[in-house]
Amino acid sequence: MFIGQRNWHPFLEDTLNTMAKKGVKRAIGFPSAAHRCEASWERYVKAVEEAKRQIGGSAPIIDYVEPWFDHPLFIEAICERVNEVIKAPSPLVGEGWDGGHPPPSSSPTRGEEIMKAAWIFTAHSIPIAMAESAQYVQELERTAGLVAQKFGKKKWRLAYSSRSGRPEDPWLEPDVCDVIREEAARGIKKILFIPIGFIADHVEILFDLDIEAKEAADSAEYVIPCGCWQGIHENLMDSPPKTAGNDSPKRVIVIGGGVTGLAAAWRLTHHFQKSGLPLTLQLLESSPHLGGSLKSACREGFLLEMGADCFISEKPRGIELCRELGLESQLIGTRPEYRRSFILKQGKFHPIPEGFYLMGPSRTRPFLESGLLTWPGKFRAMLEPLIPSRPQTDETLASFVRRRFGKEMLDWMAQPLIAGIYGANPEALSLRATFPQFLDMERTYGSVIFGLKKRGGSTSSASGARYNLFVTLRDGMQKLTDTLAAKLGTSVVTSGARVKDIRHADGFWQVVKASGEILTADAVCVALPSYAAAELFQNLDPDLAGELAAIAYAPAATINFAFREMDVKRPLNGIGFVVPRKENRLVLGCTFIHHKFEGRAPKGFMLIRVFLGGVQNTDWMKESDEVVTQNVFAELKDWLQVTGNPMFTQLERYPRALPQYSVGHLTRILRVEERLFRHKGLALAGNWQYGVGIPDCIESGERAADALAAHLSRVAENAL
After folding, report:
1. CA neighbor of 523 nearest in space, from 716, 711, 653
2. Which of 69, 467, 552, 707 is least enclosed by beta carbons within 10 angstroms?
3. What is the dihedral of CA 396, 401, 403, 405, to 10 degrees?
4. pLDDT of res. 136
5. Are 469 and 459 in contact, with CB atoms under 8 Å apart?
6. Residues with Cβ < 8 Å from 688, sequence gap 6 or more?
7. Cα 638 to Cα 106, 491, 629, 643, distances in angstroms
8. Where does 338-393 show beta strands of DSSP type E?
9. Burial (Cβ within 10 Å: 0-12, 13-18, ≥19) of residue 719
10. Is the CB of residue 217 less than 8 Å from the CB of residue 251?
11. How far apart are CA 37 and CA 49, in angstroms?
């Protein structure tokens, strides 16, 4: 068990660092407030995610428990504290008793006095505006009602303490002290306070109730509050016992058959195999094709990739999943002799300097010898270590690069290298959501250049991208999703099944198919693009739908060109090149697939894959496939001095391919997660959350599966 705090030692970032150093890969996050609001949950979740971003790839994955305000053991813990007050040997102090002697035999018992007392459940007050955007009050009322019900107490009140902030801002009322005075005015002689807002004695209990409330009681003269502090309860973190006779299978539906949804389904099968709980699992995919944008095809001896052609091994879940599926022998890396790339500038291909990584150089001499920037541009970039750091706020990538390296570096190096990943406008792209390691370098070392030099290693000899970290599958990337689908089986996976609505009724989820068929489930994982998920939530939760729909997407397309080597007179001795926006060209980047991975083209032939799209270039979307292919070929013909026509071409369009991680993206995702907290048994996953790469998609699907498995396990245990 690890403890992290926002405002005191041990701070969350320190705790997460410790966990990473101890090799912790995944942990359950347990917010120590039973009742959810921005201050008690969302700020802590956000702080954890920000700390993880600062730490980088070694930070553990944190899966959060659902709100536990009505958990049976939590209610039991409070009830036991009430019982301790009832059964305490000394009598209540009150009217007619001096506190030092037992009451007359005709006096009521302590239990009778407690039941006659006014019961006041107390919790931390929060601003009304905050309360209106959460279920804080409703959850407090639910907790209080369940406790009162256990004792047959029909009348009780909810009061608040610890009011702070500006006097003019309205907070939740009534205040505890005001309640004491009101009860005194009504002739109530004894009050039982039951704090339910903290799981341990807290300064805001010890002061607000032990001191302030007592003073208020003294001023009322004959009203004596009797405290029932919850405190740490030894059973609070225990699991209820399991019953072997629970044979009712849990029904889970995964919507979306891309790599994210398939990974979620695969993870769910493993969870339920380990727990021994029976599971009925369905995966529904609207299109005939499983795997989303992962599409591979063999044609005339060439192996074509229409979507992602590889993934990065630095994020472990891609490699680990391949091993789980028995695909380890399929993994291959890039060809070492071609691990370099180029940037096109004014018709000339410039090698990316050794040691340059996305936006900064870790080696000085190769950078200064490059012809990509003018000497004034190079001089401005090398002044980066002298640029003062700024407070850590969300900043656009363009602003950060201009501020630290200058405009030339942005226009001719950073922009084209990053456009191939996100297809984004750097003037809108959130650096914190996409490349937080650079913010971390600025904060830790005061300089990106110093940070790159310190971290060295894999980046010191890189040329634009760390090609030694790129891996693919020998038979193509679709092999991954085909294997997942095959192992799940046709009894689980259904293609051509479009879902049009999701409802919640009678304690179950209802998934409405386009055919009109309604499927019932205990839990649902929606592994779709955010815009598609938004359509399903229009009726269930319009606010959630609005947040999801607000995430913009950029179009993209890939075109595979097969050439004879003799027809390309200007071949590049590298993996490919990128084209800066300032060149005003159709092509964003180009990969020489036959150089990148072995076995992609027959001997004597070349396979060149072109990438186009992004938010800054959408005119091509209006053109036919034939026109787009002709225009792209015209650019290749000019750049590479192609004399013959391609043997064949294959174009694949993705009208909404790349989610845009604009400034404020992480804040939006936290709002999505806050809305999701309200829907038990519902999970979301996709590349619009925390990363667009294949390992990111796998992790997203697995996080959703973990959350649903934990929820269903709790439901099963609590029902026994």
Report:
1. 711
2. 552
3. 180
4. 87
5. no
6. 529, 530, 548, 551, 659
7. 107, 52, 14, 10
8. 341-345, 348-351, 356-357, 360-361
9. exposed
10. no
11. 17
Q: How confident is the model at residue 456, as a pLDDT?
A: 67
Match 């705090």 to its residue by tokens.
5
| Neighbouring residues of 180: CB distance < 8 A, sequence distance ≥ 6 | 191, 213, 216, 217, 220, 223, 225
**pLDDT recorded at residue 102:** 38
Q: Are strands 224-227 and 190-195 parallel, antiparallel or unpaired?
A: parallel
Q: For the chain, which ranges sit under pLDDT 50?
A: 90-107, 221-225, 229-233, 236-237, 239-247, 457-462, 464
Q: Are 590 and 608 in contact (CB under 8 A)?
A: yes
- Structure token digits, residue 439: 């913010």
d(CA 500, CA 511): 8
Q: Please state, in angstroms and rounded to a whole number, the distance separating the CA atoms of residues 312 and 317.
A: 10
Query: pLDDT at position 204, please?
Result: 56
The amino acid present at 542, given as its one-letter code, is: P
Q: State the alpha helices, DSSP H only, in 340-410.
A: 364-369, 375-382, 397-405, 407-409
Query: Where do runs of H (alpha helix) occur along 332-389?
Result: 364-369, 375-382
Cis peptide before 174 (omega within 30 of 0): yes
Q: Which amino acid is at 476?
A: G
Q: How many CB atoms lie within 10 A of CB 114?
A: 23
Q: Which domains does the chain have, with CATH numbers?
A: 1-67 (3.40.50.1400), 72-99+106-227 (3.40.50.1400), 247-293+477-551+673-720 (3.50.50.60), 310-338+553-659 (3.90.660.20), 355-461 (1.10.3110.10)
Question: What is the pLDDT at residue 219?
Answer: 61
8 A C-beta contact, residue 559 and residue 651: yes
Strand order in the sheet with 682-684: 493-495, 279-285, 250-255, 523-526, 682-684
What six digits make up the tokens of 24? 């912790």
